[in-house]
Input
Amino acid sequence: MFRPITETMTVAELVDFWLQKLRAEGRLENTTINEYERVLCKLVVPALGALRLAELTTECLNPVLSELRTQSVNRQRKAKVVTGAMLDAAVEAGALASNPVRGSMSVSRPKTEDRILTLTELETVRMAVEAWMTKDRPGPKASGDLADIIELMLATGARIGEVLALRWSDIDLVARTVEVNATIKTQAGKGTYRKPLPNARVLELNAFAMAVLRRRQDLNGPLASEGVFPTRNGTWQQVNNVERRWRQVRQEAGLGWVTPQAFRRSAG
Output
């Protein structure tokens, strides 16, 4: 039984209540709720958690959103969207007359050019990845998988999670095709796993992709792992680890605009 939402409840208490309610309802995936929790606990509660709902106004929210904007537009956007959804529950319960997020400062992304990589830019990306992988740095040696993952994204237009979920049984090196039929999810309590896609698709493989796959096949020997891109322990790689590696590469190489989406737009 959940306690009622009242105007004397603090924002931090509402966060706990709302997340518990979402988990109990079971309508959303746990990975989605976990992301809501991360956003609220890291970006919202430190600044607003002690306020009671009766004290929460648009004027309280705007400085927080403004500060998040200086860190990242993505952080600002996520904080506003998730907080707005949470406060809708307070409005429905009668604890708030209106949602203060709805009148808060707008979130706008800088306009980016809808472009694909030129051959020269593509070569620059490959050189940047190679330089990053061979760079002397403390800690374990950088994974050599990133270059191959990018090549398959460029060849197929698949997302990072879809590339990481590829199995050798999904690939026909004779017919030069690959079936993209799953993605990778990471969930607290469940770990990292393959999640089947509702609609699989079969794609042709170009010469670059074929070269990558044959090289990886030779590297894997008798295919000890079912995955094309296993971890050292033979498990599935996490999407956020690949995203983090690419952010490091593009930051060091000055390739800020080259996102994973740019690889997908440049497919083929």
Notes: Residues 119-265 form a domain with the hpI Integrase; Chain A fold (CATH 1.10.443.10). The chain has two domains: 11-103, 119-265. The chain is about 50% helix and 10% strand.
